[in-house]
Structure formats: C-alpha cells, structure tokens
Design goal:
The complex is a heterodimer. Chain A is mainly β. Chain A is built from no helices and 11 strands. Chain A has a 3-stranded antiparallel β-sheet with strand order 1-11-10, with no helix packed on it. Chain A has a 3-stranded antiparallel β-sheet with strand order 2-3-4, with no helix packed on it. Chain B contains 18 helices and 10 strands. In chain B, the strands form 2 sheets. An 8-stranded parallel β-sheet of chain B has the order 3-4-5-6-7-8-9-10. In chain B, α7 runs parallel beside α8 (181-191) and α8 packs parallel to α9. The chains are: A mainly beta, B alpha/beta. Chains A and B meet through β5 of A and α2 of B.
Chain lengths: 121, 413
C-alpha cells in the first residue's frame, strides 16, 4: 500500500482541498464540514481535473403537492464538486456523477496519524 | 482567486493558466503518441469582443465606425453586436469563463495567439481554424450594412494582426456578411487569396434567410473557383421565437445548435446546391452529429414521394449529404451503437473532421475520436487531421506526421 502525506490536519479547514499524487494516481482531497473525502482527479467524462474546480451545492427543483413547481433551490444537504473543463458535477459524499449515478470516481482511503493527514492507494 | 458559488459563498481557485488547466489533455496526448499524428481542429474560438478597440478602426464607413466606437466608449451602452441570453459558464462551474481575464500572456505575440498555442500544444493540435465567438450572432444584427462593416473589420484584423503571429498554425474560414449578398461576394474577392484563409463561414443563426437565393450564387461560385471551403457554423438563439418556450439554457442550446444547421442544410440539399456547385467543399460545423441521420432519413423519405419539388436532385438527399463535410463537436458520446451507426450513415471516414470548439464549455479533446474502439486506424487519422490536411492543404509538422499522411493518402503535394 502506497501512502502520501496530504497536510497537517490543523491546516486543512472546512472548504479546503489539496491535490496529491501517488505514482500514477492524482487525488483530490476535500474537507467538507469536517469530513475528509478523497477522489480520483480524473473526470469520467473526458479526463479533466475533476477535483480542481468549484464546489457548489446541488440544485433541486421543489414541487408542490399538486405537482406545480416552486422553482429552483440550492440544496441544504448535498454539496457537489465540479470538473472545471465541462462542468461535470460529482456528489461530494459519494463521488458519484450527479447526472448518472452509475458513474463513480474512485475513492481513496484517508487516514489521520496524530496531526497529519495521509491518503493511500 | 475567489469564485462565487451557492448563496454567495466564496470558493478559492487558482488563477487561470491554460497549460496547467489542460495538463491532463497533455497526458492523454503523450499516452496516445499524438505527436506523430497530424491533428487539425476545424473549429476553435477566440473572444474577439475583448479586442474591439483593435477591430473597429478597420471599419470603412466613417459614420458607422463612429457609431460603433462611440457605443464602446466609457459611459456608452456598448452593444454593437447582437447579444444572446445564455449561461455558457454554467454559473461559474466552467471556471475558465470567469477566470479568463486573469490569464497572463507575457509574450510578444498577440494575446489570442499565446493562449491559443497553449491549448493547441496541450491537446497536440497542430493547426486550428479560428472563429470568433460573439460574431456568431452577427446574422441577427438588424442592420445589414453594420453586419458587413463588422465582418470586414474583423476579417482584416484577423488576417493582418492575429494570424500572422501564429507561425502558420492558425487558419480561418472568414465570417461572411450573409445578410448583404454583394458585400459577401466582395469579401470573398478581397480576402480569398490571403494567407491563412481556408474558406468562408456563414453563421447559420439566421432564421429568415434562404441559402438558395439567387443573390448568393456568385459568392458560392467565387469560393468554389478559389478552391476554398464554404462552411456553415451553428449557434443558439434563445430569444428566437422557436425557442422561447424553452425555460432552460440546456434545452435552447441543445436544440438551437442542431436546428439552425438542420434548417439550412435542408434548404441547401433540397434546392440542388450540390448539383450546382459539385466541386465546392461544404462543411457543417458545431451541431454535433445526431442531427445528420435524422435529416438524412426525413429528406430521403419525403423525396421518395415528392421529387417534383426537388427537380435538380439526381440522387437521394442523403447522398448529397454524404458528399459534404461535418465537424465532430459536440459529439454525442452517450450510446456507442448509435454513434457508430451515425458514423456509418455519414461516411465519417472521409467526411468527418475533428473539432475542439475550445475554449467553449462543451469542447472535445482529440481522444473523443481516438478512443472509439470500433474506429479503424485510417478513420482515426483521417478524422483527426488527414481529411482536413487535404481540404486545407496543410503540411505535416514532423516526419512521423508525414509518414502517416502518406500512409493514408492525405499528404498534400
């Protein structure tokens, strides 16, 4: 198992990200509300740097009971990260592509060792 | 640099450096050994609207020039070009839009050349056909004389100030002021011989114009006589009546790009333009590919029953469509079986040309062609650059490319 130091946990605040490399693996590491996520940085669409773009809440359309639309809203619970090449959106909590959940970025294991954060392949 | 995300939340991203942004494209090119394959991008863009202070002085008519330049001045309201509502940047998700102004270009060449060479090098593109962005809506301008003036100024600026600094790697099919047939003809005569001019382009976002009108015949003839290409470049026009019921840009964009090429290609075929100008290479750009089998089937079906309405045709409409050329992007890679059949129906091996559309939001990399497992090696070479090399008389840039062009019969001598 190959392991790579990411950063000191104290230096990795909510909303921060790092891009690290382990051999051929390029990995995006996110801190979202205290949870650490690590995914492949290769977009499943055309190979763009999937983890290097905007993070933005998922967009939802809310319906009334009679099926009329209330309009568009940002989600209170789902955060997405977006590949900057074409705007492909991934669910931060799962790495699944929002428009096709069968497409899923490889997830990497993140380990805290004392004050340090590591990601491993 | 901060970008605005949901509810005004700020997200820090790096400043734009095209080479860095496209590092993964460079990895793909290296893995696939693209260096030995001549790659021609027949549809790439720059943002000419950011250089209007350089372009407008080339306008000829003093009164129109004063109107345009005054409108651009500080405090002026500025819109000299038709504006189309749209969200190309997806609310900042496609970060190169909001970050574009942050990109540094310290070299001596024109800024658009420096940036262009960065993405071309990353993708291993050897030559790019450069098109404008905002001017793709020029067909919606209410004044045909202003359309002619702006096209004239842009074409002079592009051929005199931009392309000469690209080391021969940019070429263009110049923007024709199609609303004014005489002006279009004049610009073919004036610019057709200039270095880097591979043909002329008509923006198809023109719902009321018929490409079959007699007034255009001398222009088509002039392009054909010069051995140049006539292309039709599509675009969206959300404000047009056809699309006003679309409540999402996704819908207007998907339909608009297809529709305007469907409209004009249908008129081109049914009016026997392929019989009138059999040696004129015609190319349909930026509508993707899914519309092509649709139009082929619809027109063949109708023509079977109504040949008296298309008496110039000597073969099926789809046969004329297979005589023409098409650019790849935005290629609908969602169903490999459907895509493969589309390639079969259009004779993609000889009629399809790679296009990136970079830097626009839905650009395609060369790997979108190279990685199709069902494409022959010859088809990959032809589509990615060989066919364009023949059409635009482009030489190889190294020995490996020369060998491959010779191998597939694409070396221009």
């Amino acid at each position: 198992m190959a392991e790579q130091f990411v950063c000191k946990t104290a230096e990795f605040k909510d909303g921060d990200r790092r891009i690290v490399r382990i051999g051929q693996h390029e990995i995006g590491v996110f801190n979202h509300k205290g949870e650490i996520y690590a995914y492949s940085n290769y977009c499943l669409h055309q190979g763009g740097p999937a983890c290097e773009g905007l993070t933005i809440s998922a967009v939802e359309e809310h319906l009334n009971p009679d099926k009329t639309s209330k309009g568009l809203f940002f989600s209170d619970t789902q955060m997405n990260f977006v590949c900057p090449w074409h705007g492909m959106e991934y669910d931060m909590s799962t790495g699944e592509c929002v428009s096709d959940r069968k497409m899923k970025l490889r997830k990497y294991k993140v380990t805290k060792k004392g004050e340090d954060l590591y990601v491993s392949v | 640099m901060d970008l605005i995300a949901d509810r005004g939340r700020r997200v820090t991203v790096e400043e734009l450096n095209t080479t860095k942004l496209l590092a993964h494209a460079a990895e793909q090119a290296k893995q696939r050994k693209f260096e030995d394959m001549l790659i021609v991008d027949v549809d790439a863009h720059h943002y000419e609207s950011e250089h209007m202070e350089q372009i407008l002085p080339f306008m000829e008519n003093d009164v129109l020039k004063q109107l345009a330049m005054s409108g651009r001045a500080k405090g002026g309201r500025g819109a000299i070009m038709p504006q189309s509502v749209g969200y190309q940047d997806m609310g900042g998700r496609v970060t190169r839009y909001p970050l574009r102004s942050s990109e540094k270009t310290p070299g001596k060449e024109h800024r658009d050349v420096q940036i262009g060479h960065r993405w071309m090098d990353a993708m291993s593109v050897d030559y790019s056909c450069l098109f404008p962005t905002g001017m793709l809506s020029i067909g919606l301008h209410p004044q045909k004389e202003m359309e002619a003036e702006l096209c004239w100024a842009y074409n002079r600026w592009l051929t005199e100030k931009v392309m000469p600094e690209s080391g021969g790697r940019f070429f263009s099919m110049l923007c024709l002021p199609f609303s004014d047939p005489d002006a279009a003809y004049r610009q073919v005569c004036e610019f057709g011989h200039r270095k880097g001019v591979g043909g002329f382009m008509v923006t198809t976002v023109r719902p009321k114009v018929g490409v079959y009108e007699n007034a255009y015949m001398k222009t088509y003839r002039a392009i054909e006589e010069r051995g140049l290409v006539l292309s039709f470049h599509s675009g969206p026009a959300w404000g047009e009546s056809t699309f006003q019921s679309c409540n999402r840009f996704l819908s207007a964009h998907a339909l608009g790009f297809s529709w305007y090429n469907i409209l004009h290609c249908t008129n081109w075929v049914v009016n026997g333009m392929g019989e009138r100008f059999p040696k004129l290479p015609v190319m349909w750009i930026e509508a993707g590919l899914a519309w092509i089998p649709f139009v082929m089937q619809k027109l063949d079906h109708e023509y079977l029953l109504r040949p008296s309405e298309a008496p110039l045709l000597k073969k099926k409409p789809s046969d004329y469509m297979r005589d023409m050329f098409y650019s790849t992007q935005p290629m609908e890679v969602v169903d490999e079986v459907a895509l493969q059949d589309t390639f079969r129906q259009m004779n993609a091996e000889t009629q399809l040309l790679y296009a990136s559309d970079y830097p626009h939001w839905d650009f395609d990399l060369p790997s979108t062609i190279y990685d199709r497992p069902w494409l022959s090696e010859k088809a990959k070479h032809n589509i990615l650059g060989g066919t364009a090399a023949r059409l635009f008389k482009l030489p190889p840039r190294n020995e490996g490319q020369k060998k491959n062009l010779e191998r597939f019969g694409n070396l221009h001598t």
